[in-house]
Write a structure and sequence with these properties.
Number of helices: 7
Helix content: 55-70%
Strand content: 5-15%
Order of helices and strands: HHHHEHEHEH
Structural class: mainly alpha
Radius of gyration: 20 Å
CATH topology of the largest domain: Rossmann fold
Distance between the termini: 29 Å
Number of domains: 2
Shape: elongated
Length: about 150
């Protein structure tokens, strides 16, 4: 980012704001920085960005079987929406439970406690009341941690 800032004649903070789509940057400055970003083939460190923000920028999609045409059409609709909204692009993580209750509960706990996704979509499945309560408590405590 330092090289980009120097070549574009802006600060490192300005480069960061452009890369993160900050609305405070003028269009002229944005275009100048993006031109240098492209020239230098800069790609942000996604792991560092996710760690700093506390978000995965991912959606977990949990279904009974991923190979069925019906599930494929639903995943395609999710994919289309991510590109349309420019959010969660390449961030749909599919999980198959193979219709097993224990597998479903294990996957959902791994997603929750491993912070694998910002949101979970369950298809044709109902989690246990205990697991729903765990998600509620974890979400609430995470919000308190970030305040």
């Amino acid at each position: 980012m330092q090289d980009i800032a120097k070549k574009a004649g802006v600060t490192k903070a300005t480069v960061s704001m452009v890369v993160n789509n900050d609305h405070r940057i003028t269009e002229a400055t944005r275009q100048k920085v993006l031109k240098v970003v492209k020239e230098l083939r800069y790609y942000p460190n996604e792991s560092a960005r996710k760690l700093a923000s506390g978000k995965t920028e991912a959606i977990a999609f949990v279904g009974p079987r991923l190979g069925s045409p019906f599930i494929a059409s639903i995943l395609e609709a999710f994919e289309n929406k991510t590109y349309e909204t420019r959010r969660y692009i390449n961030g749909i993580h599919p999980y198959s439970t193979r219709n097993e209750v224990n597998t479903r509960e294990d996957i959902l706990r791994k997603i929750l406690y491993g912070r694998k996704a910002d949101a979970v979509v369950l298809l044709d499945q109902v989690p246990s009341a205990e697991l729903v309560e765990e998600y509620g408590k974890k979400k609430h405590s995470d919000c308190l941690d970030r305040m």
